[in-house]
Structures are given as structure tokens and as C-alpha cells.
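Example record

The entry below shows one chain as it appears in the dataset: sequence first, then C-alpha cells.
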Amino acid sequence: MQGTTGDPVEQVAYLLQQLSQGPLALSEQALSEQDLLGLGLVVSDRQVSLPGAVELLDAAAIQQALTEPAKAWLQQLHLFPAIGSTNTWMMEALAQQSLPQPGLAGLVALAECQLAGRGRRGRAWRSPLGSNLALSMGFSLSLPVAELGGLSLVVGMAAVDALDPDGRLGLQLKWPNDVLLEGRKLAGILVEVAHRKGVSEVCVGIGVNWQIPAEVRQLIDQPVAQVSEFAPGLGRNAGAGLLISRLVEFVQAFAKRGFGVMRPHYDNIHAYQGLSCRVIGPQSAIDGTVLGVSDGGELRLQTAEGEQIFSSGEVSLRKQ
């Protein structure tokens, strides 16, 4: 693709820049038609164009939608037209010491299009142009790693509070990191941690399905939900402001009080609470009934051998 290197992210960013000026001929594109559709672009009459209904991200609109505490917390807001992964960018910037401040506190990254989004345990997360909210936020917490076990659960609770504040929709959480609508995946969470001089540098990543094109939904290997189903008037910028604000509120509360005081509410909105489930580990699978979660965020499972505890890093949970 003329004007770019061979880097896929730069190629897509350059393509989006060109498309902002108008449609392009399909025959002149280095990417295949399927790849272009997978990016959320429109292919019609041998031309490629941007989808007309997409609300592009706007830094001023996002900041306007923040609560006052979130505005005070925010230090840097980065918007990328295309990126591999916002989480990867944030963790690499920390490791390379390329940030203005030494830690991640107050750092936010969002992308219009994410090419290598990651879910838990290396799973891919599709994030086509303007169809998803790919958000990463940085926190510097004076907590040891042993006390961070419930953090991904807290992030899920914050997302539910932002998108379903009155509980009308009945959004639920699947331990440890999925937000569900009627059993379909609405959002996924990935929390990554690095340590620096006694401080836990935490990157909180969340991907929310906003309005996914039918062509992209067909490529996803599980039932998915999207915000446009229940809040068609909520734009991505206002939604980003809501999510950032609630995440700041919930993570700061977690840092002060721990997960234990939040645990009963988590159990109340856990989709698998009290159900017969299978916990799948690297070497074996164990059946039982979900009792809830512990004060450390581990899953409590009643099995034939008694209660067993599982941490999120080692297992997956499935309904039987």
C-alpha cells in the first residue's frame, strides 16, 4: 500500500485516513475483500468506503462525558485510528519508559480499530472500525499482587453499573471476565499487571461490542450482544465517558476497601451463581455447583469431594 511500511497497523491507519476523503477502488487495495469487511468497512460496487453510521471517537466529547472525579484522575488520553492492542501498547510504553510519568496512573487509550485485541488466555477479540469500544486504562495501586485477585471482577461490576445502572436490562457477569446480556457476550475484560518499586502498575482493558456489522458477527465463534440493542441513542464517546468514570470510581474503591465488601453484589449478578458448572483446567475438569466467589475473587465450587477454590489464571468456567 503506497505511503506506508509493511506494518499492518500502519497500513490500516493509512487506509482509514484515505477513506476519510472518500471511497476508494477495491481493485487498488492490498487487502482482500474479506479482510476489508472484517475491518468493518463497506464494500459495494467495487468500492471501499467507511460505514456511514459510525460515530468516530472524539477526545473533547469523551472528556466532556466524564464525571468530575474522573476528570481529576485523567492525565493522558490517547486515541488511535488503528492499533494492534491498546493493552499491549500501554504495557510496552511502561516497559520502555516512554511515558511522561513513571507509571500508568491516569493513562487512557482507545482505538477506532484494533487488529490484535486479546482476551483472556490468549483468545482473540475482534474490534472492527467504530463497532467496538476498545479501551485500556492505567492505574498505579499500592497493593501487592496477592491482593489484586478480585480486580477483574470489580471491572466487570463497573461496566454493568455504567451500561445498566438501574438493573433494567439484567446484565450479568460470568466469572472472571465477561459481561453478558441474555447469556450473550457483551464485553470482555483483560487485566495485566507489572511491578515497579513496590507499586502495582495495572492495565485494565475492556472491549465492548457496540454495533457490530453482520459480516463480522458471522466470524465470531460465540453468541454476542451489542450496546445498540438496548441503547441505540448512546454514542461511543458518551459511552466511553461513562465507562471511564465508573471504572475510576470502582477501582479507587477497590484500592481503599478491597474486594470483600463488593463480593455479595458480585455474587448477586453472577450469571452462574448456584448452577451446575464444569471448571476446566490445564490437566483436568471438575464438576460442581457454583457457591460464589471468595474475598480474593476466586471461584468457590461445591464438588463431590467438598468445596474447592479456583483462581482465574488457571481455569475456565462452563455451564454443564
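Notes for this example: The two ends are 49 Å apart (CA to CA). The mean pLDDT is 90.
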